[in-house]
């Protein structure tokens, strides 16, 4: 198929729109001061918090999301349609709305939060809130990508395993998961990336307290005018992580398909 | 002999109404046209499909009923399907050891059993390979080893050779024959050679029901349906027996050798395609065994040419030499006379 010549114009515009700002960031980044900037206390606090909270939320996503994807992929009936919609909504929901929803439910005066508060459990404006916000927005990415993979692959192997006498649990652990390992890994990478970039929901639900709830994106936002160099240095870190995750996920997808 | 597996079940959604038994220690072949319910029968036994009414039972123990069903993974069947379905992330050895492991055997004992099973299919040397490193025939042999490693009470074979290269099929068929000796098995197949090589008994399905069953030999010699006749490579003409001959209507009659007594009434004639010769005009002018026919098609089946003929609305096949076809100048739609050799025609009641 030949490409109409005019299509190259919007193609060039799209490329410029996506590449130029990234190049601009890289050009302006304070490369020589990078080691010094990234080892400052504020930077280390944000880096450490982001890393720790994202690892925990990604693990939670994996633990809850994988069986959820399995149930959705293997179930029939009208309710699965509703659940699928419910699972997809957080993907397109503006993060600040997600944060507000979490706050009004789990916050100190929230629907559930007030009862938790009574027994001494506070979630709002703690590191736990950061993890909850990240899990909330990242979970759909794993569930949706894994559900598709389970639907297209795995069914025949699972039947073969059942024929050989493997219980559903054994089949899930020894056949479904290993066969779908590439899809699980790429779904996990996407979820991790989404958690790492989480801003709106975290700010609304968890606030911005250094070392407690102020993750990398929040710190970058706060520093953008007061200490542009530090903001840029942290931004370079996020950009690098994003590039690695996309590369990894594409490679895994290639190996899978 | 008693039936090891007994299926008396209906499934409305698939249009099934089946009554089938697999005798202890025998291999039963299930044949029939596409959509006859052959794979559904396997699914019913395996537990992937549940009956609306009736039951599936194994040695008197009920496996499926409309109310209750033993889960698929608790049924003691060995499965061999069209595709080997070896787990891609496990070695050949661990694939074969999977079943014993799933049934609670220790890792070491399971692997030992797997080695013995691989030995039995002649693939002990490939134990360390990945399934992706095997040929189609090798993969299917590993699948057989895997299916038998669980000591199945019954082996279910669903077109086990259909996806294989024709050059490796004879070897696998021989292997399967050796490995199935003494076991109870059900074989679904499209290939008459499989039935002859592996089965003792055949069941014919059509549109969800059993339309015929019996020993393989009887089925091969006197097929009772058009499908079976085509399946075993014979011609079948139906008509009315009258004075020891088969009247086809229109004053045409077929004479042959009657198998058993042939009372007047419904009857059939069975003969091989080689018993039919084709002429432009009736050679003797006698209506006996000289059937007016229309050529429906000519197909090259080296070394012969298979000519399909329509005789009074029934179809029959004639195998002619290429020379004869050329000499007659046959083409679709030609009106010809088919002559049957009476000594090669067997007549049966019913």
Structure summarized in a few sentences:
The complex is a heterodimer of chains A (257) and B (350). With 257 residues, chain A is mainly α.
Tell me the CATH superfamily of the largest domain in chain B: P-loop containing nucleotide triphosphate hydrolases
Tell me what the CATH architecture of the largest domain in chain B is: 3-Layer(aba) Sandwich
Morphology call of chain A? globular
- How much is the average pLDDT of chain B? 90
* Straight-line N-to-C gap of chain B: 27 Å
Structural class of the helix and strand makeup of chain B? alpha+beta
Tell me the number of structural domains of chain A. 1
Estimate the global geometry of chain B from the Cα principal axes.
elongated
* Unreliable runs of chain A: none
CATH C-level class of chain A: Mainly Alpha
β-strand amount of chain B: 35-45%
Low-confidence stretches of chain B: none
How many strands of chain A?
A: 0
Largest sheet of chain B: 6 strands, mixed
How much helicity do the residues of chain B have?
A: 10-25%
Distance between the termini of chain A: 24 Å
List the helices and strands and how they pair.
The complex is a heterodimer of chains A (257) and B (350).
Chain A: H1 8-28, H2 34-38, H3 41-74, H4 78-92, H5 95-106, H6 113-118, H7 127-152, H8 155-163, H9 168-179, H10 181-197, H11 200-206, H12 216-226, H13 228-256
Chain B: E1 3-11, E2 16-23, E3 27-31, H1 38-46, E4 53-58, E5 61-64, E6 77-80, H2 92-102, H3 107-120, H4 136-148, E7 154-158, H5 169-180, E8 185-188, H6 192-198, E9 201-206, E10 209-215, H7 216-221, H8 226-232, E11 235-242, E12 245-249, E13 252-254, E14 257-258, E15 265-271, E16 276-279, E17 290-301, E18 304-311, E19 314-320, H9 322-328, E20 335-340, E21 346-349
Parallel strand pairs in B: 3-8, 3-9, 6-7, 7-8, 14-21
Antiparallel strand pairs in B: 1-2, 1-4, 4-5, 9-10, 11-12, 11-15, 12-13, 15-21, 16-20, 17-18, 17-20, 18-19
Helix pairs in contact in B: 2-3, 2-4, 3-4, 4-5
């Amino acid at each position: 198929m030949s490409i109409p010549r005019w299509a190259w114009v919007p193609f060039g515009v799209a490329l410029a729109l996506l590449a130029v700002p990234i190049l601009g960031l890289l050009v302006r980044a304070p490369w020589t001061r990078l080691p010094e900037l990234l080892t400052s206390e504020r930077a280390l606090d944000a880096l450490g918090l982001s890393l720790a909270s994202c690892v925990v939320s990604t693990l939670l996503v994996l633990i809850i999301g994988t069986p959820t994807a399995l149930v959705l992929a293997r179930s029939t009936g009208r309710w699965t349609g509703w659940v699928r919609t419910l699972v997809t909504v957080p993907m397109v929901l503006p993060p600040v709305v997600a944060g507000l929803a979490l706050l009004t439910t789990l916050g100190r005066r929230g629907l559930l939060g007030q009862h938790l508060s009574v027994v001494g459990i506070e979630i709002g404006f703690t590191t736990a809130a950061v993890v909850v916000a990240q899990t909330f927005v990242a979970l759909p990415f794993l569930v949706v990508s894994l559900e598709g993979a389970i639907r297209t692959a795995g069914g025949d192997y699972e039947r073969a395993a059942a024929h050989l006498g493997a219980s559903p649990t054994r089949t899930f652990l020894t056949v479904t998961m290993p066969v779908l390992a590439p899809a699980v890994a790429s779904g996990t990478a996407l979820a991790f990336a989404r958690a790492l970039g989480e801003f709106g929901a975290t700010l609304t639900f968890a606030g911005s307290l250094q070392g407690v709830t102020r993750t990398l994106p929040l710190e970058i936002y706060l520093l953008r005018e007061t200490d542009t160099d530090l903001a840029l240095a942290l931004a370079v870190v996020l950009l690098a992580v994003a590039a690695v995750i996309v590369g990894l996920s594409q490679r895994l997808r290639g190996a899978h398909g | 002999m008693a039936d090891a597996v007994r299926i008396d079940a209906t499934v409305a959604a698939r249009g099934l109404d089946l009554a089938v038994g697999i005798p202890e220690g025998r291999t039963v072949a299930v044949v029939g046209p596409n959509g006859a319910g052959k794979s559904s029968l396997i699914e019913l036994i395996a537990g992937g499909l549940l009956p609306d009414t009736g039951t599936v039972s194994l040695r008197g123990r009920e496996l499926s009923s409309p109310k209750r069903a033993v889960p698929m993974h608790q049924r003691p069947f060995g499965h061999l399907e069209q595709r080997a379905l070896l787990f891609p992330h496990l070695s050949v050895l661990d694939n074969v050891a999977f079943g014993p492991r799933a049934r609670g055997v220790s890792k070491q004992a399971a692997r030992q059993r797997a080695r013995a099973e691989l030995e039995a299919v002649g693939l002990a040397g490939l134990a360390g390979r990945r399934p992706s490193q095997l040929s189609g025939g090798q993969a299917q042999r590993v699948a057989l080893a895997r299916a038998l490693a669980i000591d199945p009470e019954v082996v279910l074979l669903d077109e086990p050779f259909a996806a294989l290269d024709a050059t490796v099929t004879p070897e696998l068929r021989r292997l399967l024959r050796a490995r199935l000796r003494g076991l109870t098995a059900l074989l679904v197949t499209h290939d008459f050679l499989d039935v002859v090589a592996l089965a003792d008994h055949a069941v014919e399905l059509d549109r969800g029901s059993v339309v015929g069953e019996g020993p393989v030999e009887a089925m091969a010699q006197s097929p009772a349906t058009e499908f079976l006749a085509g399946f075993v490579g014979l011609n079948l003409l139906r008509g009315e027996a009258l004075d020891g001959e088969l009247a086809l209507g229109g004053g045409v009659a077929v004479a042959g050798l009657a198998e058993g007594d042939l009372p007047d009434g419904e009857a059939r004639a069975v003969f091989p395609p080689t018993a039919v010769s084709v002429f432009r005009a009736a050679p003797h002018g006698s209506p006996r065994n000289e059937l007016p026919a229309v050529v429906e098609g000519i197909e090259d089946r080296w070394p012969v040419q298979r000519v399909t003929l329509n005789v009074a609305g029934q179809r029959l096949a004639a195998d002619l030499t290429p020379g004869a076809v050329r000499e007659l100048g046959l083409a679709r739609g030609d009106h010809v006379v088919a002559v049957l050799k009476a000594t090669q025609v067997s007549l049966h009641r019913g």
